[in-house]
Amino acid sequence: MASIEFIQKRVDGAKTKIEKLNKKLERIEIAKASNYEENNPYCYSDYDLRYTVRDLEEAKANLQKYENQLAKEQEKAGSRNVKAINDFLDKWLQNCIEYFDLEYPKYQAAREEYFRKDREYCQRFNNRSNQTPEERKADRKEHDKMKRDFRAAWAHVTQFDHGSLPWRETMVKDLTQERIRKYDDIIERTNEIVGKITDASKLRVSPKGNLDGIVIGEKGTAKVQTIGAGGYNIQCFHFRTLINPM
To answer: How many other β-carbons are positioned within 10 Å of the β-carbon of residue 6?
Structure first.
């Protein structure tokens, strides 16, 4: 999501462009009054008039779009410190880090077993004269399946094998960024219903660890409900937050 500063620069740029186009249109209209025969140092014509009007309308539409984006981001910025959401996502982040810290040693053990089987396959391949064509084909098929199964089983751990940082540092960094994204997603969807949040005192983290309650804003009231989303390798930390108008 673009920052307020970035969008503000776009707003300012659109306003500057509109100002320049308005001045250009004024010069063209002065020249047009004499059928482009006087007061026309830039050799304007009806062609310039058409395209300047078109560019001006486009610039105005862009300004409106950027101003709408800016208003949304300012609404979010005014709702950034909702304690219940921060408490909920802090707990989510802690649970995720603990979960992956437990998964990584399991992955390392599974990787060692994978490497052992891969070495055995390579030895058989190098001595393939001891196998019939049918045995080699079946062996290769089984080896390919082993690779696919291993990658699928541990993709939730190996997703952090990127960049220059060690695995755990990358894991913590990526999950922290995901926490920020989740906060912004909850706030953005809430703002769509209530506008700028004015009262989140009825939003709570339940005894089950879910984010539930009522949020009041300048434009209305919303009900927030969290549902855990189970599934293989995600049951420890995945959730869906439902936000509906009341």
So the answer is: 13
What is the C-alpha to C-alpha distance for residues 157 and 104, in angstroms, rounded to an integer?
7
Between CA 24 and CA 199 the distance in angstroms is 49
Q: Is the dihedral of CA 47, 49, 53, 55 positive or negative?
A: positive
The pLDDT tens digits for 137-162 are 999 999 999 999 999 999 999 999 99
DSSP secondary structure code for residue 128 in this structure: G
Cross-strand partners of 239 = 228
Tally Cβ neighbours within 10 Å of residue 52: 19
Place of tokens 């309308």: 57
What does the DSSP 8-state code read for residue 214? E
Instruction: Name residue 158's amino acid.
Output: T
Q: Where would I find the beta strands (DSSP E) of the chain? A: 197-199, 203-205, 211-217, 221-228, 239-245
* Nearest-angstrom CA–CA distance, 39 and 42: 9
User: What confidence category does residue 115 fall into, taking pLDDT thresholds of 50, 70 and 90?
Assistant: very high
Q: For residue 81, what is the DSSP state?
A: -
Is the Cα dihedral 44, 45, 49, 51 positive or negative?
A: negative
pLDDT, tens only, 158-205: 999 998 999 999 999 999 989 988 998 998 899 899 988 889 999 998
Tokens linked to 35 = 């059928």
